[in-house]
Design a protein that fits this description.
- By secondary structure, the chain is α/β, with parallel strands linked by helices.
- It is 30% helix and 19% strand.
- It is built from seven helices and eight strands; from the N terminus they run βαβαβαβαββαβαβα.
- Helix 3 links the parallel strand 3 and strand 4.
- The longest helix has 15 residues.
């Protein structure tokens, strides 16, 4: 499986979101990463549910990669119009004892359910959910803000999650989110990552042409 790219919209030019979405779509990017935060699970607010819904109207080829960093994430599904083609990642740490039900809700809507785990969460917690999900999102920084440094031990964690996924069934995706930089993305790929969230550490660095940046990153994770 080739490595896939999911640029983070929260790192794009806030005054030109539609034009950047359309440019990424034309460039053949696989997914657009949409971060939703509730200022409770993490101390920040980024893209709101209505904007995430509106993005759906603009995309032609790209699909939505929705990362919900919120308590009781299912309360936002209708407002986001979760549906066919979407990846929807919800946090193990945010769902309490209802994660099975939340995963089933995502699946019933036609989307691909992923479980996200924060840096301090051990991969073993995923074992009870692997038969119900299509992939795992591994946070390699602490969630809430862009531009944070990679957490020590992240490469080992990616390897451990990859081994866990492969032990259950083929075709499960491992998404890496956090400091996916020019100098680290290849190692993340070698450790078993499939889908890479690119933001301020790579695609959206000042002075870079977006098309050139997408081409360079795509080559590095290929």
């Amino acid at each position: 499986m080739r490595g896939m790219l999911s640029p983070s919209l929260m790192c794009a030019d806030a005054l030109n979101l539609q034009s950047e979405l359309e440019a990424l779509d034309r460039l053949g990017v696989d997914y657009i990463h949409l971060d939703f935060m509730d200022n409770k699970f993490v101390p920040n607010i980024t893209l709101d549910a209505e904007l995430i819904r509106a993005v759906k109207r603009v995309l032609v080829n790209m699909k939505r990669d929705i990362h919900i960093m919120a308590i009781e994430p299912e309360q936002y599904f209708d407002r986001m119009e979760i549906g066919q083609g979407d990846i929807v990642s919800v946090h193990f740490e945010a769902c309490g004892g209802r994660l099975h039900e939340v995963i089933a809700d995502i699946r019933q809507r036609g989307a691909s359910p992923f479980v996200a785990i924060s840096p301090d969460t051990e991969p073993e917690v995923l074992a009870d959910y692997l038969d119900e999900i299509d992939g795992v999102l591994v946070m390699t920084v602490y969630p809430g803000f862009a531009g944070r440094p990679i957490v020590e031990g992240s490469f080992d964690k990616i390897r451990a999650v990859r081994a866990l996924l492969d032990s259950r069934r083929e075709g499960m995706l491992l998404e890496v989110d956090g400091h996916v930089s020019w100098d680290l993305c290849q190692t993340m790929r070698e450790c078993g990552g499939d889908l890479f969230v690119a933001g301020s550490s790579s695609l959206y660095q000042r002075g870079l042409d977006l098309a050139e940046a997408v081409e360079r990153m795509s080559e590095l994770i290929a």
